[in-house]
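Retry 2 of 3 after timeout on previous attempt. Resubmitting structure tokens to design endpoint.
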């Protein structure tokens, strides 16, 4: 518990909140059976987050809004998005907002140690936001809500956002983000909604900053010229990857191929990890699992043996030379098409299961088609 308070003391602004949150989760894993203690920690984190939001809002409301009385409040906004084309949205208080991607999934998070499962389903909306004001504007996920045909509003999922942020290396964009004049950036916002909710019945209520005026956009990717792009679905992704897999020149991985990552082997004695040098962090969970962090590689042990290895560093590679930032085509060329594909909010997980039960996973960003992280584990 003392480690938790030390970490809380390091949270001094919104930019390192998610990174510290991830560290706290690791400490909480060691208290998995101590439910009351975990609740105390979560309450402390929530109180700190409220203080950060309140302080930032106080500063925002004191700033001059450079778009008051603008006659183009509902004017059309158009932005060219790489790989998508010219998407169409609207202006709110001189801030352009447009949707360029919509996804549905049940689980979020690219970090193998932190994922969030939806209570219903996640709708993940990717937005372009362009500040055309003369002053900086603060934009937060709370500026965007889904609205159904009955007027019910759905706020963003903070747990889903944390899972995405930790999986992206602590990127907190969307949490009280300040945009200077002329800045164009993207936001990826998850919503946990009922599983039977139809996307076609939803709209996006948005405002250009904390003090911006509300606008309403159809929940759809609208293209200049009148076309639309359908939400990302698993069958579409599967068809695309099957097509790419046809160019594979390598045989499926054997058990030996899937037992090592960065020189660490599944099943090797925990005592042998000393050859990796001094670990940066060691966490013993109540269920007996022990987690080690060695700079570019993370190792989990059970019963004195290595049971999982993961890395999101380009310096760590598999026996067939695949590493973080390798292309999807390189993965398929190296390992073939005998994978199982699942999708976790912008990350497609390609899993190869070996004869001994080990699983080799490549998490691929579908936008860049490159590996985000690699893990090997025993089922």
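Retry 2 succeeded. Sequence:
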């Amino acid at each position: 518990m003392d480690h938790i308070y030390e970490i809380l003391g390091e949270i001094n602004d919104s930019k390192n909140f998610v990174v510290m949150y991830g560290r706290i989760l690791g400490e909480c894993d060691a208290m998995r059976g101590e439910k009351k203690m975990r609740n105390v920690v979560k309450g402390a984190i929530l109180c700190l987050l409220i203080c950060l939001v309140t302080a930032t809002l106080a500063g925002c409301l004191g700033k001059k809004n450079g778009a008051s009385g603008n006659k183009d409040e509902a004017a059309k906004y158009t932005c060219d998005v790489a790989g998508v084309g010219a998407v169409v949205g609207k202006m709110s208080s001189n801030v352009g907002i447009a949707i360029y991607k919509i996804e549905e999934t049940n689980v979020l998070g690219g970090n193998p140690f932190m994922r969030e499962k939806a209570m219903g389903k996640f709708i993940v909306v990717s937005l372009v936001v362009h500040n055309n004001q003369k002053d900086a504007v603060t934009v937060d996920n709370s500026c965007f809500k889904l609205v159904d045909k009955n007027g019910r509003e759905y706020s963003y999922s903070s747990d889903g956002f944390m899972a995405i942020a930790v999986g992206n290396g602590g990127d907190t964009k969307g949490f009280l983000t300040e945009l200077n004049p002329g800045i164009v950036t993207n936001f990826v916002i998850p919503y946990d909604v009922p599983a039977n909710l139809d996307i076609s019945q939803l709209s996006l209520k948005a405002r250009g900053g904390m003090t911006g005026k509300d606008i309403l956009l159809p929940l759809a990717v609208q293209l200049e010229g009148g076309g639309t792009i359908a939400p990302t679905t698993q069958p579409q992704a599967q068809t695309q990857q099957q097509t790419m897999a046809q160019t594979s020149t390598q045989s499926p991985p054997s058990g030996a191929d899937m037992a090592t990552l960065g020189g660490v082997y599944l099943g090797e004695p925990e005592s042998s990890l000393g050859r990796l040098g001094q670990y940066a962090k060691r966490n013993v969970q109540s269920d007996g699992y022990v987690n080690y962090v060695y700079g570019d590689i993370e190792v989990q042990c059970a019963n004195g043996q290595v049971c999982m290895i993961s890395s999101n560093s380009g310096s760590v590679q598999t026996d067939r030379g695949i590493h973080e930032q390798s292309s999807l085509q390189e993965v398929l060329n190296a390992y073939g098409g005998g994978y199982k594909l699942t999708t976790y909010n912008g990350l497609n997980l390609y899993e190869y299961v070996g004869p001994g039960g080990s699983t080799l996973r490549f998490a691929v960003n579908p936008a860049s088609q490159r590996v985000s992280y690699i893990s090997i584990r025993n089922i």
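Attempt log closed. The helical segments are 2-9, 17-29, 35-61, 158-167, 234-245, 328-335.
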